[in-house]
Design brief:
The complex is a heterodimer.
Chain A (H helix, E strand, L loop, with lengths): L1 H20 L3 H12 L4 E12 L2 E12 L3 E8 L7 E5 L2 E6 L4 E5 L11 H5 L7 E11 L2 E10 L8 E7 L5 E7 L5 E13 L2 E11 L5 E12 L16
Antiparallel strand pairs in A: 1-2, 1-13, 2-3, 3-4, 4-5, 5-6, 7-8, 8-9, 9-10, 10-11, 11-12, 12-13
Chain B lengths: L1 H14 L6 E15 L19 E15 L4 E13 L3 E17 L2 E8 L34 E10 L2 E12 L7 E15 L2 E10 L4 E11 L3 E19 L2 E19 L5 E9 L5 H19 L4 H9 L8 E12 L3 E10 L5 E12 L2 E11 L13 E10 L1
Antiparallel strand pairs in B: 1-2, 1-18, 2-3, 3-4, 4-5, 5-6, 6-7, 7-8, 8-9, 9-10, 10-11, 11-12, 12-13, 13-14, 14-15, 15-16, 16-17, 17-18
Helix pairs in contact in B: 2-3
The chains are: A alpha+beta, B mainly beta.
Chain lengths: 243, 405
């Protein structure tokens, strides 16, 4: 009887720390997201450099975030793109061009700059779009890593599957592979550098490589993260260009 | 007077906000275009090249956008100044204030604005039936490559209520130019209610008064999957007035009409983007009115032969390209040969009644991130009995550059 009570109550209680030490894939993914964006309401400067053979081009953006699935991009450089805005509300996207003064509805395939899709820059949360499972363990550059298998929550996502390597102890993202619905590898992301912003550890440099055209790559650098809640109307299609 | 009013307006806006830090931002572009436009002697409006349109002309322009806003972005003053010069039979230069407005966020859900402002309502690429406050659009140049758009003088509020955005505009029609005769010609109003409903952009519009057409409209757009966007607009207009061709003359016609646009765009692999639109313009000329116009142009040629140019001059004045028919098809093909570097674009606009077409291929080369070189070739295809066959020039070759700063 005592043994039965012990097995019924004590064994599960003893096992709790072990369970807590191994969170499921979705919990890990939320921790990965925290490295890209540790706060919900923010603005951050993004410098995006595309590299193609010997040639490079740079864009400067400021990204304003309002929750995990709403963001606004302000183009700051080059001069030809100044005054442009890009709004992402979950899966709906618009671009505002100052010479037409009109928000244009755009589809996910229409690119922002270089190898970076619109979502790469504007979206900082994987957990909004994907469900994750721990698929195994691996070693990357001498670091113990967990391999996460991310599956898109919607069928019409740009990348239906993502394979991601994260540091086993800290869940710091190391690299990711993005696959199309057909199973074709489309691009790779490398989380190159980390720093501290607003007292929190964050990724500061991401490199995106085009798997189909290996000579094309894009580097995104993040800086000047600020915690601020902007008015809701700023994230409205008809407010683009008005502030 | 205009400058003084503008300065007063700016000062009032800025003075109200002296306690807040302000920020300045300027950007713009300058460009030059050479145009090669040979006469079309087969056009009934330019028989034998009688109009003597200059073959080689040149246009230069300079546009400066400026934003002055508070640190918190609670208020903003925006302007667009444009200077241009045209070198054709004689040289002309002009400067204009194309935008100058002040926007203040009174509460998180209420904005107030006043001044001259460019608004672009609607979802269409080539035409916008619901764009009652929009600047006139040329479907051959939907992105306004030379920044020519000029705003309308208006005052209004933007309300952000729940998930709705309601814009109310009061539009005084002011005649600014003219010696000692600056006055209010009329007043109009326009309203738009917008909401995103399950991924669909939905806008309801209405306008009226003596300064704007009486209209009610609807526009929608939605993205399907990763590559397809569909959009539509429809508007009803009441009591619109237009000079229409009658037998050997023009007469005023007052009528109700509808305008409808249906279109979509699809992005193929390698970012090739195709846009297709069908546009029905109930305000255009009917078949019989077009036949009357043709007869009138022929009469103009006969009158010219006996030394009277007035009829032909009037026919040219009344020829309003892409408003002489009722049904049009717009096609645009954009192919980035090298992303962000070299792009090929072709726009094709067809009059569905007579089959005549304007085809406008163009190539754009970003030499540097801020330097653009381009060549746009516009060909008008159609017999002398068709709309595009009546265009007074045979073709237009535009060679240009633009520098952004």
């Amino acid at each position: 009887m005592r043994l039965t009570l012990f097995t019924r109550w004590a064994v599960p209680l003893l096992a709790l720390p072990a369970l807590a030490a191994a969170p499921d894939g979705n919990e890990i993914l939320k921790k990965v997201d925290a490295y890209r964006n540790p706060i919900e309401y923010y603005s951050v400067d993004v410098e995006l450099t595309t590299l193609h053979r010997e040639e490079s081009r740079t864009w400067d953006f400021r990204v304003y975030g309002n929750g995990s699935d709403t963001s606004l991009l302000e183009f700051r450089a080059p001069a030809a793109d100044k005054g442009k805005y890009y709004l992402m509300l979950r899966d709906d996207m618009w671009i505002y061009l100052p010479n037409t003064s009109r928000p244009l509805r755009i589809s996910p395939l229409q690119r922002l700059a270089g190898e970076a899709s619109n979502g790469d820059v504007a979206r900082t949360s994987y957990s909004v779009d994907y469900n994750a499972e721990v698929a195994g363990e691996d070693k990357v550059d001498g670091r113990e890593a967990l391999v996460l298998e991310l599956k898109g929550k919607d069928t019409d996502m740009s990348y239906s599957r993502v394979k991601m390597w994260v540091v086993k102890k800290s869940y710091e993202p190391i690299q990711a592979e993005f696959y199309a619905m057909s199973g074709k590898l489309m691009k790779r992301a490398f989380f190159r550098e980390f720093g501290t912003m607003l007292g929190k550890p964050v990724v500061t440099t991401i490199e995106i490589q085009d798997a189909l055209r290996p000579q094309h790559s894009t580097i995104m650098r993040y800086a000047n993260l600020q915690s601020k809640r902007y008015p809701e109307k700023m994230f409205s299609r008809n407010y683009l260009g008005k502030w | 007077m205009r400058t003084a009013l503008l300065c007063l307006f700016v000062a009032a806006g800025l003075r109200a906000q002296v306690t807040e830090d302000s920020r300045l931002r300027f950007y713009g572009s300058l460009g030059n275009e050479a145009h090669l436009t040979p006469n079309n002697p087969e056009s009934p409006l330019n028989p034998g090249g009688v109009l003597g349109i200059r073959t080689l002309t040149n246009s230069s322009d300079f546009t400066l956008f400026g934003d002055i806003h508070s640190e918190t972005k609670r208020w903003k003053f925006h302007f667009k100044l444009r200077g241009s010069s045209e070198l054709n039979s004689d040289s002309t230069a002009r400067g204009s204030v194309n935008e100058a407005y002040w926007n203040i966020s009174i509460t998180p859900w209420l904005d107030f604005f006043a001044g001259r402002k460019i608004e672009k309502w609607g979802t269409g690429y080539g035409w916008n039936p619901t764009g009652v406050v929009n600047p006139p659009k040329d479907p051959r140049d939907p992105n306004d490559r030379r920044d020519t758009y000029r705003g309308v003088d208006e005052i209004g509020v933007d309300l952000f209520l729940k998930n709705w955005n309601v814009s109310l505009h009061g539009v005084p029609v002011i005649r600014w130019s003219g010696q000692g005769d600056r006055r209010l010609l009329g007043t109009g109003w326009a309203a738009r209610a917008y909401r995103l409903i399950k991924g669909v952009d939905l806008s309801l519009t209405a306008s009226g008064g003596s300064g704007l057409p009486n209209s009610q409209g609807l526009s929608v757009s939605r993205v399907f999957g990763k590559a397809l966007e569909l959009h539509a607009e429809a508007a009803m207009f009441q009591n619109t007035i237009r000079y229409v061709p009658a037998s050997n003359s023009f007469e005023l016609e007052r009528r109700n009409h509808a305008e409808v646009l249906v279109g979509g765009q699809y992005t193929f692999p390698h970012f090739v983007n195709v846009t297709l639109e069908y546009y029905h313009n109930g305000g255009g000329l009917s078949s019989s009115q077009w036949l009357n116009f043709e007869r009138y142009a022929q009469l103009g040629a006969s009158d010219l032969a006996i030394g009277n140019p007035a009829t032909l001059t009037n026919a040219n004045r009344q020829f309003d390209l892409m408003n002489m028919g009722r049904d049009y098809l717009f096609q645009r093909y954009a192919w980035p040969i090298r992303l962000n570097k070299l792009e090929f674009e072709t726009i094709v606009i067809s009059n569905l009644r007579d089959g005549s077409t304007a085809i406008r291929p163009g190539i754009y080369w970003k030499v540097r991130p801020n330097w653009l070189l381009y060549w746009i070739q516009t060909e008008f295809i159609g017999s002398p009995h068709t709309e595009f066959g009546n265009v007074q020039i045979r073709r237009s070759s535009d060679f240009g550059f633009r520098y952004h700063f």
